[in-house]
Amino acid sequence: MQDWFSKYFLYFYPLFFIGISILAPYWVALIGGWRLLARRFRLQGDFRGQKWRMQSASMRWLANYNGALTVGADTTGLFIVPFILFRAWHPALFVPWTEITTTAKTQLYFFKVVELRLGRSEQIPFRIKATLAAKIEAAAGTAWPHGYARAAEQPPSPIG
């Protein structure tokens, strides 16, 4: 078996690499909740609000998008799309503010984090740094779903 593997490794390696390149983004989109959100919140048309590139976020079950997202906001909702290389299985999303709730800031290692819950029925967590949340809140204006703003002055919870 070892001889066979050594002989044919170079033939199967590209197939393995392509398979992983296709399956990994699908798996992350599935477990993180992106696919579920895309059913209702797939972007229709163009987003013309303010955008911030190379942002990080985490979603449910350890689905992390480190520096791979463009996040945008305006008075109507939140825009999210990954970097083009990670866009397989991740269509651009636009979630209206009426479908988003916020939670208090928490401390995660050295970062203050704000969790947005996307979709009233889906409740997919979308955790971002507080600095990005402040930019989004400014772009959203009075449409920002209140909840975290009151907790901003409170110290981080020792739980979680």
**How many helical stretches?**
4
Q: What is the radius of gyration? A: 19 Å
What is the mean pLDDT?
Answer: 81
User: How are the strands of the largest sheet arranged?
Assistant: 1-2-3-4
Q: Do you know the CATH architecture?
A: Roll
Sheet bearing the most strands, described? 4 strands, antiparallel
Put the structure in a nutshell.
The protein is of the alpha+beta class and about 160 residues long.
How are the secondary structure elements laid out?
Blueprint: H1 2-32, H2 34-41, E1 50-58, E2 64-73, E3 77-82, E4 93-96, E5 100-102, E6 106-108, E7 111-118, E8 124-129, H3 130-140, H4 148-151
Antiparallel strand pairs: 1-2, 2-3, 3-4, 5-7, 6-7, 7-8
Q: How would you describe what is shown here?
A:
A hairpin with a 5-residue loop joins strand 7 (111-118) and strand 8 (124-129). The protein starts with a helix and ends in a 9-residue tail after the last helix. It has a single domain (34-151), classed as Roll (PH-domain like), CATH 2.30.29. The longest helix has 31 residues, at 2-32. It has helices at 2-32, 34-41, 130-140, 148-151, and strands at 50-58, 64-73, 77-82, 93-96, 100-102, 106-108, 111-118, 124-129. The strands form two sheets. A four-stranded antiparallel sheet has the order 1-2-3-4. Strands 5, 6, 7 and 8 form a four-stranded antiparallel sheet that branches. 26% of the residues are buried. It contains four helices and eight strands, in the order H-H-E-E-E-E-E-E-E-E-H-H. The protein is α+β, with helices and mostly antiparallel strands. Mean pLDDT is 81; it is low at 149-160.
